[in-house]
UniProtKB/TrEMBL annotation:
Residues 146-441 form the Peptidase M14 domain. One of its GO terms (molecular function) is metallocarboxypeptidase activity. One of its GO terms (biological process) is fibrinolysis. Keywords: Carboxypeptidase, Disulfide bond, Hydrolase, Metal-binding, Metalloprotease, Protease, Signal, Zinc. Belongs to the peptidase M14 family. Its cofactor is Zn(2+). This is Carboxypeptidase B2 (plasma). The keyword Protease applies.
Length: 455
């Protein structure tokens, strides 16, 4: 993979694509023979595109240099999310925009820090993600295989509610800092009394575009395959589903218009140049302890107090007022392919740890069986690192015992810039996990109801 990516990079250096395809192939082969090693070593060419580098520091000194690069140079850490977590022998994914590429590359070379270019053409991929061929007559069929602007998503919400007036209801759960509405869709496929419910939110973190794409896909799939797919029918017969496609609309909008790498909401902190709170550090679950930051410029800034942000408060209020019916809480993120369960805010085990563990394990096994893709699983704090103030932990503490966070595709090949051609695959995998967990929860509640009846 690394050699392949390097070749792409070298092709860009040569501007090889100005030749015809035959000549290009010849030049390509000659070029590899003559120059590959040399250029691999020097890596000298002025970058015209942002890059994503994968770097594994192998000494404490290299750790410090990387921390310094990620803080003081114009770069964006993709993994880990904050420089505090950079450590020896652990992969760092760093986005380096074109204009700071030369400086950063030189600095890494100077300190003999080796790196692999994961993406040499980030700008091109960003452009590809934003392409919307709405004039394409096939666009209807491929709607769920593309990314959409916030306006398109609002239109889609209205259209879906209009198309399914008896089964889909739009609920305004709150609004964002910049006064954008937070709409959740309620899917209720029948009128059985005392139905339980599942909540799914997407797009807490603005740059994780695959997440809202999944929420849209999930609603579409549920409505289309009810009475067609057995698992989906069983689930929707037994529970309502609330879907919040974009929990952080201001941030999401900003990733389309200003900064594709934006993560937080758009709260302007008075007296500082810093914008944004990490909504997934803003819930009241060991709020702002180790693993979050009270520094407003940090990517994991926890906010002024728990639920200080209108977006997290809106979701918390809704869950509080529906906690008796909502049995399952799911929050969709990317990337790294993980199925996480509480807790992330402490190393302690949840009281129903083994039950939850069994569910994520089964979900990961099903994904592997059907799609041959590997997802790791376990409690957040032990699987990644401490992350207090998360929505899943808070929901669990509220009493929604089946609470999970999914990290969708991929493992870093494209990271946040997952190409549209991968949306379908990522959504199918997440859907498999949702189905596995929902069916397990139903099985458990039916078993407990019937055991109560026999007693
Ligand atoms: Zn996230």
């Amino acid at each position: 993979m690394s050699a392949y990516l390097r070749m792409g990079e070298l092709g860009q250096c040569l501007d090889i694509f100005q030749f015809g395809p035959d000549i290009m192939a010849t030049v390509w082969v000659l070029f590899i023979f003559l120059n590959f090693d040399l250029l691999l070593k020097t890596g000298q060419c002025a970058e015209t595109s942002g890059q994503v580098l994968s770097i594994t520091p192998n000494s404490q000194e290299q750790v410090e240099i990387l921390k310094n690069v990620s803080i003081h140079y114009q770069t964006v850490l993709w993994q880990p999310v904050s420089s505090d977590y950079i450590k020896e022998q652990t992969q760092v994914h760093l986005y380096v925009p074109a204009n700071s590429s030369q400086t950063v590359n030189d600095l890494l070379h100077r300190h003999s820090i080796t790196y692999e270019v994961m993406l040499s053409n980030a700008d091109e991929i960003i452009e590809m993600q934003m392409r919307n061929d709405s004039t394409d007559p096939r666009s209807g069929a491929t709607f769920y295989q593309r990314y959409h602007t916030l306006e398109d998503i609002y239109d889609w919400i209205n259209r879906t509610a209009k198309d399914y007036p008896n089964t889909v209801k739009v609920i305004l759960v709150g609004s964002s800092h910049e006064k954008r509405p937070l709409y959740a869709l309620k899917l209720s496929l029948n009128n059985r009394p005392n139905k339980k419910a599942m909540w799914i939110d997407c797009g807490i973190h603005a740059r994780e575009w695959i997440s809202p794409a999944f929420c849209l896909f999930f609603v579409h799939y549920s409505l289309l395959f009810y009475n067609q797919n057995q698992a989906m029918t069983q689930i929707l017969d037994n529970m309502d589903v609330y879907v919040l496609p974009v929990m952080n609309p201001d941030g999401y909008k900003y990733t389309w218009t200003n900064d594709r790498m934006w993560r937080k909401n758009r709260f302007p902190k008075k007296g500082t140049p810093c914008i944004g709170v990490d909504l997934n550090r803003n819930f009241d679950a060991n709020w702002c302890t180790r693993g979050a930051s009270d520094y407003p410029c940090s990517e994991i800034y926890c906010g002024a107090f728990p639920e200080s942000e209108p977006e997290s408060q809106a979701v918390a209020n809704f869950l509080r007022s529906h906690k008796d019916s909502i049995q399952i809480y799911l929050s969709i993120h990317s990337y790294s392919q993980m199925l996480l369960m509480p807790y992330s805010c402490t190393m302690d085990e949840a009281e129903n740890h083994s039950e939850l563990y069994e569910m994520v394990k089964q979900a990961a096994e099903n994904i592997r069986r059907y799609y041959r893709n590997i997802y790791t699983y376990g409690p957040g704090a032990k699987t990644i690192y401490l992350a207090p103030g998360g929505s899943d932990d808070w929901a669990h503490m509220l009493g929604i015992k089946y609470s999970f966070t999914f990290e969708l595709q991929d493992r870093g090949r494209y990271g946040f810039l997952l190409p549209p051609s991968h949306i379908q695959g990522a959504c199918n995998e997440a859907l498999t996990a949702v189905k596995t967990i929902a069916l397990k929860v139903m099985e458990k509640s039916q078993a407990s109801t019937s055991s109560r009846q026999t007693v």
